[in-house]
Design a protein that fits this description.
With about 70 residues, the chain is mostly helical. The protein has one domain. The chain contains four helices and no strands. The relative contact order is 0.09.
Length: about 70
């Protein structure tokens, strides 16, 4: 039933669904970072979220200051 519903969706509906799911996943990841590091500064939160979203290798290349984060 779900697959059939997806097939009937217009491209705009599909785009809206993907956008909503992406935002939700991002917000859940952000909430996880805030939960694990409640005293993190906004910049530290951003860098830790980058690690989650981009993966360790790409995040470290994009934001070399990640090296300075402790692993608490």
């Amino acid at each position: 039933m779900q697959i059939e519903r997806w097939r009937r969706m217009t491209p705009d509906e599909k785009a809206a669904t993907v956008t909503s799911l992406t935002r939700t996943a991002y917000e859940l990841a952000r909430a996880g970072v805030r939960h694990r590091y409640p005293t993190a500064s906004p910049r530290e939160e951003f860098l830790r979220l980058a690690l989650v979203v981009l993966g360790e290798d790409l995040a470290r290349k994009a934001y070399p200051e990640i090296e300075g984060l402790d692993s608490r």
